[in-house]
Amino acid sequence: MSMEKAKEFGSIIARLIHAQNITRNESKAVFSQILRNEQSDMHQGAFLAALAAKGETAEEIAGSWEAIYELDTVKVISETEFPLVDNSGTGMDAFKTFNISTAASIIAAANGITMAKHGSRAITSYCGTIDILEELGVDVECNTDIVKKSIEKAGIGIFNGMSPKVHPQALGRILSQISFGTVLNIAASLANPALPKYGVRGVYAKEMLEPVAKVMKEVGYLKAIVVHGVTEDGTLGMDEASNLGETFIAELKEDGRIVQYSFTPEDLGIKRGNRDEVASLNNLEQEAIRMIALLNGKDLGSRSDIVCLNAALIFYLMNQCATIKAGFNQAKEIIASGKAIGKLRDWVEEQNHSPQKGLDKLEKLTQKALAM
C-alpha cells in the first residue's frame, strides 16, 4: 500500500469523523479497497466505525452494496415459478428479540411464497439467523448450488453471508472480526446472490426507514417494506414489526413511490405482547426448541403473535392479503394447519449435504418441543 493511497483513505475517514457525507462512488471505491484488503486493519476498522458514528446515507449504503455485490458475491440464477422474496433484519437494534424473521419466512414459504434469504451469524446479538438455522438442522455451510436447489424445491433457502462459498473474497473475514453494528448490516445483507426483487427489511432505527427503502429501490427492488418497531414505552427499538408498541413502515410501491405510515397492535386488533416473552434467551438450543414449538402451534402467546405479524407483512407485500390484519389471521391458520412445521422439515431436507443427519437433529429437538 502506497503512502499516498493511505493518506487518501485517511482523508475520507477524517471527513466522516467531522460528520461529512461521502458520495456513492467514493463509498464504492473505499469498500473496494477494504474488500481487496488494500488498507491496514486499523484503517478498515476506523472507516467502519466513523461511518457508523456519523450515520449512513442512502448513497453511502448503495456504494458499499455495489462493491460487495460486484467484487465479492457468487451470482445465482434460480428457476422458480414465482418471484423471489427476502426477509431479514439489520441487527444493531436496542431490544434483542428471538429470531422472528426466520420463523416468519418459514410461514410465508408454507403459503407458497418463494423465499431466498441471505443472513449471517450474530454480530450484535447472541442468535443470528444462520446460528438458529444451523441448530435446527439446515446446512448453512453448503455451497450455493444446494441453496439454489432448496429455493427451487422447498420454496425456501438461505445464503450464509459469512461463508466464503457465498462471498469468497473478504466479507466473512470482515464480519468475523467486528462485534459492533456497521453499514455492512445493511449493505451486506442486501448483497443476496439470487438478487430478489421483493423484500421485507427490518432496520435498527426509525431514521433508517426511508434511506434503506431508497437503497432497495436503487439496487433493483420492485417492491419492499422497511420496518422498525418499538417497545411499549417507545424507548427501545427492534428490526421487526412490534406487537409491544408502535411499528413504523416505509413502503416502496411498484410505481417507485415511498410511502410512510405506522400502526399499533390495537389498530390491527392484536393483543399487546409481553416483552419478556419475545426477548432473546441467549441459548441456541432453547431458542430452536421454542421455534419448533411455535411452528407446531404449541405457542399461542406473544411469540406467535409477533411472528404472525411479521409474516403478515410478507403476505401483504406479495398481494396475498388485502390488509396486514388479514395477513396476521392467515399466518395463524397456516401454523394451525401444520404447514409451517412441514415447511421447516422440507427446508432441512433440501438444504443439506447430509439430509438424514439434519432431519435427525430436527427430530430430537422436536421431541423436546412437544414435551414442553
Automatic annotation (TrEMBL):
Anthranilate binds at residue 89. Keywords: Amino-acid biosynthesis, Aromatic amino acid biosynthesis, Glycosyltransferase, Magnesium, Metal-binding, Transferase, Tryptophan biosynthesis. Residues 11-70 form the Glycosyl transferase family 3 N-terminal domain. The keyword Amino-acid biosynthesis applies. Mg(2+) 2 binds at residues 239-240. Its cofactor is Mg(2+). One of its GO terms (cellular component) is cytosol. Its EC number is 2.4.2.18. Mg(2+) 1 binds at residues 101, 240. Signal peptide: none annotated. It is an enzyme of class 2 (transferase). It comes from the Bacteria. GO terms for biological process: L-tryptophan biosynthetic process. Residues 83-340 form the Glycosyl transferase family domain. It holds the Pfam family Glycos_trans_3N. 5-phospho-alpha-D-ribose 1-diphosphate binds at residues 89, 97, 99-102, 117-125, 129. GO terms for molecular function: anthranilate phosphoribosyltransferase activity; magnesium ion binding. It catalyses: N-(5-phospho-beta-D-ribosyl)anthranilate + diphosphate = 5-phospho-alpha-D-ribose 1-diphosphate + anthranilate. Catalyzes the transfer of the phosphoribosyl group of 5-phosphorylribose-1-pyrophosphate (PRPP) to anthranilate to yield N-(5'-phosphoribosyl)-anthranilate (PRA). Homodimer. NCBIfam families: trpD. This is Anthranilate phosphoribosyltransferase. The gene is trpD.
